Amino acid sequence: MLYLASRSPRRADLLSRLGVRFGLLDLDVPEHQAPGEPAADYVHRVAREKAGAGLLKVLASPGAVVLGADTEVILDGRVFGKPADAAEAAAMLRALSGRTHEVLTVVCLASAGREAQAAVATRVSVDPLEDADIARYLATGEWQGKAGGYAIQGRFEAYVARLEGSYSGVMGLPLRETARLLREFGVPV
Fold first, then answer.
1. In Å, how far are 30, 58, 68, 87 from 84, measured between CA atoms?
2. Which chain positions carry the site (Important for substrate specificity) (predicted)?
3. Is 70 among the catalytic positions?
4. Domains delineated in the chain
5. What SS3 state is found at 67?
């Protein structure tokens, strides 16, 4: 049985697009970057910790496979996680305005006998944003709970000038790479 170790409704929706049956695991895995920890190492670690914590919950279930994932917006080596409030989201959007940043998603699959990861980096170029643009976007509420303070699958897409990589990866789960990992673990896709 496949389990998704995530509270993200977007990840659950994306995973369901692959036509797989899965259970949801509600976990509370801390997402705090350690001092001096490189951004990519942080994203890999969090994805692995989510999968590992999920596996501990379902170890008694024969054939259990757990999918953990983490997605972060990275600009100039700095991780832009989920903003605590609208002011922090506005600051993130101002920093991303008129620039190209990276969205890194790491998917980790774990079972009792093995573990594998796939990392997908996507470059996202954002149009220059006026304060009025930011205020209108924040008023939608879409920024809440989203790395970097935006949801590419929502109204923010109108400000994306260019995307190089995986659209679903920016949303939180790169489908092509996830499907490959699932097949490697014997999960029919």
1. 15, 31, 23, 8
2. 10, 71, 153
3. yes
4. 2-184 (3.90.950.10)
5. strand
Instruction: Answer yes or no: are the C-beta atoms of 100 and 110 closer than 8 Å.
Output: no
Q: CB atoms < 10 A from the CB of 10, how many?
A: 17
Selecting among 13, 70, 127, 133, the annotated active-site residue is 70
On the 0-12 / 13-18 / 19+ scale of CB atoms within 10 A, 21 is exposed
pTM of the model: 0.95
- Tell me the per-residue pLDDT of 72-97, one tens digit each, with 9 for 90 and over: 999 999 999 999 999 999 999 999 99
Strand ranges inside the chain, DSSP E: 2-5, 22-25, 65-75, 78-80, 100-111, 115-126, 160-164
Residue 42, helix vs strand vs coil: helix
Q: How far apart are CA 153 and CA 147, in angstroms?
A: 13
